Every structure is written in structure tokens, then in C-alpha cells.
Amino acid sequence: MLNRYVLMLILTAFVSSCSAPDSSNGTYRVRIPIDNGSGKYVQSTVELKSVTSLSKMEGSAAVIKDRGSFKFFQGTDSVESDPGYTPNAKFILSSGVYIPQDPESLLLTTTMAHFEKLKDFYDLRNSTSLMKFPQNVMVQVDSSSIERLTGPSAHNAFFIPGLSLFVFNLGGADSIPVAMNSGVIAHEYFHSVFASLSKFASQQREVWRGNGMNIGNDQINLYLNDACKNSAINGNVTSTQIKMSQKFVIDSINEGMADYFAYEYTGNPGWILATLPRAENRNLATPKILECGIEDQKKWMVYESQYKSGNLTHEVGSIFAHFLYLTSQARKSHGDLNGTILQVLKFISKIDDKVQGTATPISLTELVELFLAQSDRLDDSCAAADHVFHSSLDATKGSCAPGPRMRGLR
Amino acid sequence: MKTAFMFLMLFSLNASAETYLAPAIGILATPLSSGQPGTESTTTLGLEGMYIYDLYMGGLQYSHYSGVNEGSDLIGVKSKFDQLAVQLGIKFIHSEIAPYFLLGAGPIFQSVTTKIMGAEETFTSTVFGYNVGVGLLVQFSKNWAGDIAIHYYPQNILNGINYMLSVGYYL
């Protein structure tokens, strides 16, 4: 009888010892879908070097929680969040590559891979020294939990600077989920970079949203330019209104730069379309022209921030993103692949300087001129600026002055 | 695998031995990938052959786990497993209703098919897997018996509890 129990004990110990730990300081090779640069998601094998537990989605670049909830109360800026659960992602190991066994594991792995790759992307450009790692990420967040923020919306993502928290909603079945969209993740990731590099942003405690635009593609120029010219302000502009308008334009620039970095990361100017097929106006390659003069823009920024709750930041940002895209394209055609990326990262601190030294509203065009002032390859960025802002750019004040350079490039 | 099968057959030829052969059906409950409380279940179909000598049991079990078929037309994942396990066990008592303890080990044949935007690719893998189980062998008559078993798969590669029921024949 005793022998029988001893044998059982030995067998149990043997089985327990065979339980493979899912913790390693080594490299995991995983198979995930990635935007191939044209909006087509194709299976790719990616090496993960920062992951300590693939099943729990923990690593030095990011820690991902699943199925949490998040509420942001606009007005009071208060946040209620339940981080959700430590995942239990499942894989098979096929020829040395971890293959996710179900869609949930596939999504979690894809998100983790992008957070690692994006850290590498910014590490290479010395832009992460002020950031905290690992990043806190929530995926598959129930959209109904943020009803009070933007209304129910399946396709949305957020970065909350005050909490250093990324939130990716549940995706719909009809398109690539936000937490799998390479560009959406890169867009939100840029917000965390911006928050670490910008003194202005570090003082903010609001949610930066990655939502799409509601107006049609063919209407964007007309809509924005009309909104700009028709904005009326009653009475004198107060210092509070000035601050709000400055915040609006910087938020817009932030959104535009986030769109641009999503393009640089994916190689696809239409990165958003895989998730939001109707948001063609966020496609960086779609032409956009701002025809408002500087003074009209300032009135618009005050009006927009005062009366419209700043909802147009993505739309205004898309104009700046298009300008950066054209600049980058031109420079790349000359073999300069990295120049625009580095310039934009340096530009963030210049925005701080501009805001701190200004007691008036700021226009988008003034920030473009500030960008041009620190351009190494001025011809390329001036040509792009001329294309997007030609009727509002003050060539006598801007860095592209004197006029002949601008005229010659038209 | 071949050796184990021959082992089983040799014991089956022994007139004094009891060999239990039965189809089995069950449910494999695995933790949710999201980490939320609860489990997701898949159907298990199997076949087991067990030689029983005194209190000792040994044999083979083949199991097919139907796995998941989830996602959308845009992104979908299907997975399934098969396992052939050599089983060794001990009955606690001599009785027509006998609880037992069991250890199983053998190859797990895995397959995952991923479909992304219409492009499909399938991955296969064979790994060595273990399970530990407890069960209740109930002899209805001289030739007929039933087996209720719970197997725990502790590995990351197949992690869960398999509830199996079989009704079979004593040779």
C-alpha cells in the first residue's frame, strides 16, 4: 500500500516538473499580421527581445492588460479605469516560431510587437530618455465603458499622459482592430513621445484620442477653410481664451505629427483606412490646402477652442501631417530618409519656446514657419509648405523668404 | 508509439488479463486567453485501450481536441490538437467501482490555421505532452464498464482540464 502512494507521489512530482515556464530573457519569434505599406496586412515573423513572459504579455517595453474598462469624465478630467486582466495568451511553437492559437492571442502579440518595435524606432533617434518603461497598455477595452467620453465607438484608441496609459478599444469584425493596426498604435505611441519631450504637454492631463474624422474627404478643404473664415469672436480675447486657443493648435499639431509618425512607422500614408475605411481624409497622401491667412486662423483657433470644444484637432492636424508627408517624400527622393523624422522630434521643444514667449493666439502657419526656420533641406520643406499653405504663408516673414525661392518652386 | 502499442497487444493476449477498450467523449476546458475568470471549452473525442492487472493499469489513449475556430472573415484563427498518450495508472482498491490515479504522456500533434485578409497559412507542430488524471472505473457487468476521468494538462502548450467519459468493453 505504501509503495503505491510513493509511486503516485513520484509521478505527480514528475508531471509538475514538466510544466514549461513561460518566462525567458531570450528572444521570441512570433508570427503576426503587419501592414505591408499598402494597407494589406500580411503575416510576418517578428523577433521580440524585450518580452519576459509571452503568455502574460509582460516585457521591458510594455505590459499589456486585457478586457479592462475605462471612463473619462470630460469637464472634470477625472478618470476611472480598471486595468483588466493579465492575459493568458496561447501559442504553438512551429519551427521555432510562436504561432498564436486564437484571435485574442494574435491581437495581444501584435500589440506587444509594435510596442517593442516603436521603442526601438524612437531609441534609435534618442527620443526615449525621458519616457518611463514598461508602457502600460490596455487592449480590448469595452467601448460602452467610454460612452461618456465620445459616445459608443468600437474603433478608438487613447493615450492619457497623466497616467502614462494607452487604451485600445474592442475592434469590430469588419476591419482591422485598433490594437492590431500598426499605424494606430504608432499614432498613439507618438503622443507618449510628445508628452515626454514637450513641457507644454506634460502640464496637460487630458485624453488624446485617435479617432477618425466625420467629414467627407471631398469636403475637408472647404469645411476647414470656411470654418476658419467665418469664425466670429465677440468682445476682447481674454488670457484664458488665448491659452485655450494655443492648446487647441498645439493639440492639432500633436495629432498631425502623430499621423505623420504612423506613416513613417508603417510606410503607408493611408494606415488608418484598414480600421476606418471612410477616413480617407486622414490619408496623408490626400491633398489638403489651408487657405486662411494668419489672422483669420487666430480668430478661428480662439472660436474653435471656445465654442466647439476643440473637436477639430484631427482635422487641423491632418493638414500639418500632409505638409510633413510632402516634405518627407521630397527629402526621401534625394536619399534623405531620416531628416524629417529628426527635425520633427527637435521641433517639439521649439513649440514650447514659441508658446511660452507668446501672449497672443498662435496660428498653424506660424508654427509651419517655425518648422521651416530649423530646416536643413529648406527647398524641400518650403515646396511642401507652399503646396499646402501657399495662400496663408507670409513669405516676407517666413524662413522661405525672400519670395523668389517660393515662387520658383511653385 | 509502436512499442507501446505492442506492449498493449501483448497484455491483451494474456488470458488472465483484463483489457478495457472504449470510445470516449469529453470536454477540454482551458483558461481564457484574455486572462478573465472562466474557461473556454472544446469537444474532445477519443479512443482508449487500457490493460488492467491487479491494481495496475497501462495502455494507450488517442484524443482529438476540436480547438477553436474564432474571428472574422478578415482575421480568423482555427486550431486543433490530437494526442496519442501512453497511460500508466494505479487503482486505489479492488472493487467494481474503483477510483484510480493516472499519468499520461505522448506526442501532441498541433495545427493552427491563420487567415488574414483572405490569405491563409497553416502551421503544425509536434510536442511531447503530459497529463495527470484521476478517474472512476465502474464495471457494470462481466464485459461492460464505464470510465469517468479528469485529466489535467499542465504545460503551457496545452493547459487545461479534460473531462472524459467512456463506456467500453472488457476483453
Strand order in the sheet with the most strands of chain B: 1-2-3-5-6-7-8-9
The helix-and-strand class of chain A reads alpha+beta
Low-pLDDT ranges of chain A: 9-21, 207-214, 402-410
- As a percent range, the share of strand residues of chain A is 15-25%
Portion in strands of chain B: over 45%
Strand order of the largest sheet of chain A: 5-10-12-11-13
Structure, explained:
The complex is a heterodimer of chains A (410) and B (171). In chain A, helix 4 (182-197) crosses helix 7, helix 7 (239-266) packs across helix 9 (313-333) and helix 9 (313-333) packs antiparallel against helix 12 (378-389). In chain A, 44% of the residues lie in helices and 15% in strands. In chain A, the strands form 5 sheets. Chain A has a 5-stranded mixed β-sheet with strand order 5-10-12-11-13, with helices on one face. Chain A has a two-stranded antiparallel sheet with strand order 1-2. Chain A is of the alpha+beta class and 410 residues long. Chain B has an 8-stranded antiparallel barrel with strand order 1-2-3-5-6-7-8-9. Chain B is built from 1 helix and 9 strands. Classes of the chains: A alpha+beta (410), B mainly beta (171). At the A-B interface, helix 1, strand 2, strand 8, strand 9 and helix 2 of A face strand 5, strand 6 and strand 7 of B.
